[in-house]
Amino acid sequence: MAASGKVASFRLPPLPTIGEIIKLYNLRAQKQLSQNFLLDLRLTDKIVRQAGNLKDACVCEVGPGPGGLTRSILNAGAADVLVVEKDSRFIPGLQLISEAAPNKVRIVHGDVLSYRMDRGFPAHIARKWDEDPPDLHIIGNLPFSVSTPLMIKWLEEMANRSGPFMYGRTRLTLTFQKEVAERLTANPGSRQRSRLSIMAQYLSTVKNCFTIPGRAFVPKPDVDVGVVHFTPLAQPQIQQPFKLVEKLVRNAFQFRRKHCHKGLEMLFPEAQRYRLTEELLRHAEVDPTLRPTDLSIGQFRALADVYSRLCRENHTLFSYDFRKELRQKRQSHRVIKREKNVNG
Ligand code: SAM
Question: What is the CA(140)–ligand 1 centre distance, in A?
């Protein structure tokens, strides 16, 4: 306890700057790993502040690279920081940070896409889903090339309460290409409204915190970057299996500029297409002439509930894939054409 009666907070001892670490270990950024580094610790502090209070928290940092964000996470008081880095060149620099913060940093040299985060932290930090979120945060200045597939994987895990969501409603603070950040948070009627908006917003509260200009990174990427914070909802806004919601939303957005019935029609085999689309829209009370970008999460919920009932009434419906049917049709046309040519 400090003399003032306040608990002394942890500060990292003086370390070489991130720029010096990059020079020291010859860490030239590799384009195929989407490496753009943040050297300004005021900026990394600002990103980390978006996560909330990290005092004594557990944090998983994805793609720490030379460790700018890692330092800010430690200075914010996190007790257990697990970093997952794919590129071995960064491991010695991360070890330096780990030595400066004894027993606080665990380094995993591996791919975050396959890392089993459900095994990364002790079971006692877990909270029930409808309780307050656990003291576990995922933070990362993600590689752009993996950020969207990773987020889709995490959204599915959020829906299934698996992976990092085994511990409860784990919060995420992540960077994305600015346009992706805008899509994640877009409202109905917005030009950016997309599949990603629905999938993220039906499962979580999504906040677009602030934009970082590309020039803040070394090397400078071609795009600006958005910092986005996610808190999983205790009650998802759509109570249907993730795969069903994903299929419905994917089809609805197929023709994003056309009326929504166009894309939704493709959920159904040709013979029943018009009848079932009409039934789907009528029971969900959705105007067929709205564009998919105009539909609210509540309208998607109504569509998902009716589609789920139709799938229960007809067990082959959910596996129907119009693209597969199209491919098969093309294939048989080709066979017929070839046979005609052979037979003269
Ligand atoms: N967080 C650092 C910063 O802000 O300066 C580095 C950011 S850089 C955009 C992305 C980092 O993620 C790089 O260090 C890269 O090696 C790492 N990375 C790329 N793909 C990865 C993957 N699949 N799993 C783990 N790390 C990955």
Answer: 8
Domain spanning 242-325: CATH 3.40.50.1400: no
- Pocket lining: 292 vs ligand 1, CB cutoff 6 Å: no
Q: Is the CB of residue 97 less than 8 Å from the CB of residue 64?
A: no
Tell me if 64 CB under 6 Å of ligand 1. Answer: yes
Which phi and psi angles does 308 have, rounded to 5°?
Answer: -60, -40
For residues 191-210, give the mean pLDDT: 98
Question: Three-state DSSP class for 83?
Answer: strand
Residue 43 DSSP SS3: helix
Of the candidate ranges 72-76, 187-191, 196-200, 333-337, the one whose mean pLDDT is the lowest: 333-337
Q: Say whether pLDDT at 290 is over 70.
A: yes
At 310, the pLDDT band (50, 70, 90 cuts) reads: very high
Of 60 and 327, which is predicted with more confidence?
Answer: 60
Q: What is the mean pLDDT of the chain?
A: 92
What stretch(es) of the chain map to CATH 3.40.50.150? 18-232
Query: How close is the Cα of 70 to the center of ligand 1, in Å?
Result: 12
Distance CA 60, CA 336 (A): 56
CATH topology of domain 18-232: Rossmann fold (3.40.50)
User: Is 113 near ligand 1, meaning CB less than 6 Å away?
Assistant: yes
Centre of ligand 1 from the C-alpha of residue 112, in Å:
9
Which of ligand 1's atoms lies nearest the C-alpha of 64? Answer: 1
% of the chain residues with pLDDT over 90? 79
Sign of the alpha-carbon torsion through 128, 129, 131, 137: positive
